[in-house]
Write a structure and sequence with these properties.
This is Transcriptional regulator. It contains 4 helices and 4 strands. By secondary structure, the chain is mainly alpha-helical. It folds into 2 domains: 90 residues, Multidrug-efflux Transporter Regulator, Chain: A, Domain 2, CATH 1.10.1660.10; 37 residues, no CATH class. The strands form 2 sheets. The chain has a two-stranded antiparallel sheet with strand order 1-2. A hairpin with a 5-residue loop joins strand 1 and strand 2.
């Protein structure tokens, strides 16, 4: 059983959260803490729902309004979802790096030599990197209309 598993009936959830069952029904109606439903329509609360109910009770006792509490819970859910997504993306990036052992970074020196740069290697400040914009055939938007094989001017 994980924190998201909807296992508690409303009476148990009310007892665990220290609230009256009618309060839980009201919070469900206004969308504050919405439990999952069984096929028959009965409410089933998860441990995460119980934690949210406890948080609502604490914030409410401190004077926070229900709309403010609802916004706070929405933001907490969004943060939780974004953290999960970041973890997924970090895993995908790690896997991609492990599957591409031959990928290297290259730099160009001031005399035109090209060399491989290791992942932990720093480039000397005196090293130049010259970027060339490729010459286009007619209709080129760079204004380069020489028509010969001369490389374009560095930009």
């Amino acid at each position: 059983m994980d924190a998201e598993s909807p296992v508690f009936a409303i009476a148990v959830a009310a007892e665990l959260s220290g609230m009256h069952p009618q309060t839980l029904r009201q919070y469900d109606r206004i969308g504050l803490v919405v439990p999952r439903r069984t096929r028959g329509g009965s409410r089933r609360y998860s441990m995460r729902d119980i934690e949210q109910l406890r948080e609502v009770a604490q914030l409410s006792s401190e004077g926070m309004s229900l709309p403010a509490i609802a916004r706070l819970l929405d933001l907490e859910d969004e943060v939780r979802m974004l953290r999960r997504r970041v973890t997924e993306l970090e895993g995908a990036l790690r896997a991609e790096r492990e599957n591409r052992p031959g990928v290297r970074v290259f730099a160009a020196g001031s005399t035109g030599q090209v060399f491989s740069v290791g992942s932990a290697r720093r480039i000397r400040r005196s090293t130049e990197v010259v970027l060339w914009r490729p010459r286009m055939v007619s209709g080129d938007d760079t204004g380069d209309e020489r028509g010969d094989d001369t490389p374009p001017t560095p930009r």
